[in-house]
Structure formats: structure tokens, C-alpha cells
């Protein structure tokens, strides 16, 4: 169970997504990307734009219902990525690595890249940008909205 939250803004996601594109470019040519929906869609769009990739495939794996982890279900397999040769699988984050392992098994020759990584899943990623602790829950901009917060002096202690 997460004990703290790490809120990512649109600006930060865009900057970190571009950093991921830099790192991927340094590894060599990429023919296409496979986005793990839904969280990988926007990171994949940022990478595809930077690397001028037009070949974009998707795979849908549902593993979590909000913060509760369940049995992963492949809702849509990647149709046009073959064995993954020349492709990079992209997700927003790796936590336990369950989702990434399932997609890697579907596309054994593809690389796997994500923006954020927690220690339990970090080693499954060929490339990532920022590590956060295992007890942190990352909140993406599509899951949040700016709202009023009380001044520190008016908040209850703790
Ligand atoms: O490493 P893991 O423990 O498998 O967790 C990481 C996965 O969990 C989240 O997806 P989620 O199942 O919440 O679906 P979503 O992308 O549609 O929000 C996230 O986008 C990753 O795909
Ligand atoms: N949004 C979000 N989804 C996740 N799925 C697994 N871990 C996380 C996390 O830290 N944040
Ligand atoms: Mg996901």
C-alpha cells in the first residue's frame, strides 16, 4: 500500500517523455512503438513525435482497479508488431513488473521503456527516466485536477 503520492504535471510528463525519447534515440533506430494502454498512450505519442515514428501499435492490459492490483487481463493483443523486432514497448511506469512481463512475452524481441520505475520492476525496463520508491503512488495528470488547498497554518497537525 502506498504511503505517499508523487504528482506529475503535464509539463513534467512532457519533459520526462522527451528525456525518454533522448535515451531511446541513443540506443539506435526504432521502427515502431507499442503503447501499453491506457497509461502508455501519451508517453508513446511523445516518443513517436520526437523520433518521427509513424508506426504505432497498442496492447491493452488491465492490471489495476485504482490502487488495487488484480489478475492481469490482456484485453487487446498487439496485432501488427510481429515478434517485436525493431519495436519499443512503452508504458508510463513499471511497478511490480507484472504488466511489462506479460507484454514482453507477447513481443519477445521488443525493447521495453517507461518513464517512471519502482525498484521491484526496474530491472525489466531497458530504459526509464526517473525512479520512485516502492511505497510511492504516482498520480498522472489525467487522474488529477488542480484544486484549492488550505494554508499550512490552518491545517490540522500531522
Ligand atoms: O508493474 P505493474 O505492477 O504491472 O504496474 C504498472 C502498470 O499499472 C498501470 O496500469 P493499469 O493496470 O492501472 O491500467 P491503465 O494503464 O489503463 O491505467 C500502469 O499504467 C502500468 O501499465
Ligand atoms: N497511476 C498509477 N498506476 C499504477 N499502477 C501501478 N503502480 C501505479 C502508480 O504508482 N500510479
Ligand atoms: Mg497501464
Automatic annotation (TrEMBL):
<dbReference type="GO" id="GO:0032265">
    <property type="term" value="P:XMP salvage"/>
</dbReference>
<feature type="binding site">
    <location>
        <position position="138"/>
    </location>
    <ligand>
        <name>xanthine</name>
    </ligand>
</feature>
<comment type="subunit">
    <text>Homotetramer.</text>
</comment>
<dbReference type="Pfam" id="PF00156">
    <property type="entry name" value="Pribosyltran"/>
</dbReference>
<comment type="pathway">
    <text>Purine metabolism; XMP biosynthesis via salvage pathway; XMP from xanthine: step 1/1.</text>
</comment>
<comment type="pathway">
    <text>Purine metabolism; GMP biosynthesis via salvage pathway; GMP from guanine: step 1/1.</text>
</comment>
<dbReference type="GO" id="GO:0000287">
    <property type="term" value="F:magnesium ion binding"/>
</dbReference>
<dbReference type="GO" id="GO:0000310">
    <property type="term" value="F:xanthine phosphoribosyltransferase activity"/>
</dbReference>
<dbReference type="GO" id="GO:0004422">
    <property type="term" value="F:hypoxanthine phosphoribosyltransferase activity"/>
</dbReference>
<feature type="binding site">
    <location>
        <begin position="38"/>
        <end position="39"/>
    </location>
    <ligand>
        <name>5-phospho-alpha-D-ribose 1-diphosphate</name>
    </ligand>
</feature>
<dbReference type="GO" id="GO:0006166">
    <property type="term" value="P:purine ribonucleoside salvage"/>
</dbReference>
<dbReference type="InterPro" id="IPR023747">
    <property type="entry name" value="Xanthine_Guanine_PRibTrfase"/>
</dbReference>
<feature type="binding site">
    <location>
        <position position="95"/>
    </location>
    <ligand>
        <name>guanine</name>
    </ligand>
</feature>
<keyword id="KW-0328">Glycosyltransferase</keyword>
<dbReference type="GO" id="GO:0052657">
    <property type="term" value="F:guanine phosphoribosyltransferase activity"/>
</dbReference>
<keyword id="KW-0460">Magnesium</keyword>
<keyword id="KW-0660">Purine salvage</keyword>
<keyword id="KW-0808">Transferase</keyword>
<keyword id="KW-0472">Membrane</keyword>
<feature type="binding site">
    <location>
        <begin position="137"/>
        <end position="138"/>
    </location>
    <ligand>
        <name>GMP</name>
    </ligand>
</feature>
<comment type="similarity">
    <text>Belongs to the purine/pyrimidine phosphoribosyltransferase family. XGPT subfamily.</text>
</comment>
<feature type="binding site">
    <location>
        <begin position="95"/>
        <end position="99"/>
    </location>
    <ligand>
        <name>GMP</name>
    </ligand>
</feature>
<feature type="binding site">
    <location>
        <position position="95"/>
    </location>
    <ligand>
        <name>xanthine</name>
    </ligand>
</feature>
<dbReference type="GO" id="GO:0032263">
    <property type="term" value="P:GMP salvage"/>
</dbReference>
<dbReference type="InterPro" id="IPR029057">
    <property type="entry name" value="PRTase-like"/>
</dbReference>
<keyword id="KW-1003">Cell membrane</keyword>
<dbReference type="GO" id="GO:0005886">
    <property type="term" value="C:plasma membrane"/>
</dbReference>
<comment type="function">
    <text>Purine salvage pathway enzyme that catalyzes the transfer of the ribosyl-5-phosphate group from 5-phospho-alpha-D-ribose 1-diphosphate (PRPP) to the N9 position of the 6-oxopurines guanine and xanthine to form the corresponding ribonucleotides GMP (guanosine 5'-monophosphate) and XMP (xanthosine 5'-monophosphate), with the release of PPi. To a lesser extent, also acts on hypoxanthine.</text>
</comment>
<feature type="binding site">
    <location>
        <begin position="91"/>
        <end position="99"/>
    </location>
    <ligand>
        <name>5-phospho-alpha-D-ribose 1-diphosphate</name>
    </ligand>
</feature>
<dbReference type="InterPro" id="IPR000836">
    <property type="entry name" value="PRTase_dom"/>
</dbReference>
<feature type="domain" description="Phosphoribosyltransferase">
    <location>
        <begin position="10"/>
        <end position="147"/>
    </location>
</feature>
<keyword id="KW-0479">Metal-binding</keyword>
<protein>
    <recommendedName>
        <fullName>Xanthine-guanine phosphoribosyltransferase</fullName>
        <ecNumber>2.4.2.22</ecNumber>
    </recommendedName>
</protein>
<feature type="binding site">
    <location>
        <position position="138"/>
    </location>
    <ligand>
        <name>guanine</name>
    </ligand>
</feature>
<feature type="binding site">
    <location>
        <position position="92"/>
    </location>
    <ligand>
        <name>Mg(2+)</name>
    </ligand>
</feature>
